[in-house]
Each structure stands twice: as C-alpha cells, then as structure tokens.
## 1
Amino acid sequence: MSLKEKLEICTICGLRPHKFPLTTDYTTLYTRLEHEIRASIFVGYTIFQSGMAMGADMEAARQVRRLKHEFPHIQLHCFLPCETQADNWTEEWREPYFNLLEEADEVYCLQTHYSNGCMHRRNREMVDKSQKLIAIHDNFTRGGTAYTIQYARDKGLDIITIDPMQFRAP
C-alpha cells in the first residue's frame, strides 16, 4: 500500500447543536475545523466523510463542498444511517441537508428506516473506511461522537479533537 492510499479517507463528526455551549463562537470554531480539513488535504487526504447529522457533521460537509472549488480533487462522501434520518427535522435543517446530499460525490444509506443502533453502525462504517478522524467534541459529553472517537481510537486512527469549550464568544 502506498503512502497516498494510507492517507486517503478522513471522517469528520461532532456534537449536535443542542450539545454546544450556549456561548460558543461558531465562527472561530468552524474556522478551526476548516484549518484541520485544509491540513488534512495538504498531507494527502482526498475523501472526507460526514454522517450528515445536524450540527458539526453538516458544517463539515458544507466546508468540504466549499473547499472543492479550491481543491477539485477532494470528495465529499455522506453516510446516512437510514433514509428517514431527516424526517422529523425542521425545514431550517432539512433544506441544507438535501442540498448537501445532492452535491455530494457519494451518498451511502445503510437502511431504509431508523432502528436501534443504526447511528452507531453508520459511525463504525465510516471509521472502518478511514485513516483519520476529526471530531468536534468537549471530551465529556456522552453519545455518538464520544462512541465514534473511542471506536476510532480502538482502530488506531489518527484523531484530532476540537473542543468547542475553547471557542466561547466574548
């Protein structure tokens, strides 16, 4: 396996909007995320995966889509746990979600309807294909992002954690 093949796929995940501190400076936080995506591109990552959950996952997908104008060789791959993932979301989230899916290079859907464990299954599928994980996580909130970080750690991935607690608005 060549170095390029080893540095191809990066998964990006993170907290849902309601789990961010109320005082989060999203501009600075997402600038840091962009920095990490750019750094990954510069060392050879070309495929960026998002689970397309509300919050950090969708912001990561937006950034990769935007960076494709500057780096046309990169790809956005979206992993959906089920076709019904966005069924109960508000229109504020549904419209950008479907727009991002339309513009993705690949969309993988693991099953038609939600079932217990489908989100974790989606996260494992992404990590199993990856060599790197970028996670927006506060290092104490439990849930899908914490599970994904631990799974990636167990698999030996390179892990970058961005702590939203460090990005508080003045």
## 2
Amino acid sequence: MEKERAKEILCVLKKRFPTPAWSRSKRDPFQSLIVTIISQNTNDRNTGRAFENLSRRFSITPKALAEADVKDIEASLRVAGLYRNKSKVIKEVSRIVLERFGGSLDFIYSSPQEEARRILMAIPGIGPKTADVVLLFCAGRPTVPVDTHVNRVSKRLGFASLASGYDGVQESLQSLYPSEDFLSVHLTLIMLGREYCKARKPLCKACPVNQLCPSRQVGD
C-alpha cells in the first residue's frame, strides 16, 4: 500500500518537474565532486557562479587545484558562502586524489558500489551525500543522495521517520522505489522542497501532492 502511494507521488512529481536533460549527460567525476563541495549550503545560482569563477582561473583537475594558492581559490568561491572552508577542502581533496589515486576517480566505475562509496568517504571533506551524488550522476550507481530538501520532504511525506538520519532516510526511499527511479526520486524531491515544501511556511495548499501527504495541514 505504501509503495503504491509512493509510486503515485512520484508520478505526479515527474509530470510537474520533468527530469532535466543535463542530469542524464555524462559528467566528469572530479568536476562533479568539486561542484558538490561548492554547493553545500549554497543555492544553485551562486554555486554555478562560483564554479565558473574557479573554471576561469584554473583547470578543474586534481593537479591544478592541488597546486593552486588557497587564497586564489577563495577569491573564486567568495560568492558561494563558507568559501574559506570550501577552498581548504577543495585543495586538500585535490591533493589526495592526485597522490592517492593518480589524479583519477575512475574506480567509481569499476569498484563495487559500497567499496567505491567507502573510498570516497575516506577522503577528508567528502561525506555520504557528496559520495552518493558522484556515484549516482557520474557512474549511474543505484543510490539516492539525501540533501536537506530530500530529508525534509521525505519525512513530511511519511516516507521516513522524523528520527531518521541520513542512512535511515536513504534506506526508506530505496525500499519504496525501484533502482531505475532513484535519479527521479532525488531530483523531484529536491524540486518539491524548493518550490512548495519549504522549511518555513510550506505551500501545502498549492502543493501538487497535497492529497497524498499526511502533513498537508502544515502551513494551511
């Protein structure tokens, strides 16, 4: 019964938020890693601006960023917020990828998924969400990254308990949906969270899945 509700919710959301073409194009894993680090606590527009700034100043390669002066990275990322910390993380991640993996993250394609995830997360500054984003978008691995929107929306929809942490929310979503839907689940829940299911004052009356949501009174 719960899987049927989940399926119906996804069907509605896919119509409201069609999968963008960019999400299915092949992406460089190192560049995706850098973009994901920049995107933390930052909106899409400023993430894009910061990445463009960084790309104009440097080649987005482990060698170039490992050798870059951290102050120059900071200057590029200033628009993104938390730029000092992100700059240090990017420089250190680049150094580790260069020294430990020869500048390549191609192991995400050939290693078993859990092993690839463990290796990524062993790099300082890479948490579960960042690792899962790289695995999903670059290697097409069956995983649902859980950002703040996915976490909030999943709990309001009743897909996961309020006490669930990252792994709990992810496991709940992956138990409700077939692996071929994981990309759509991730993207549509993010869009739902941004446009309707906001952290404060959710727009429940206008929400396209309000009749399927146990929390629909919130914000009414």
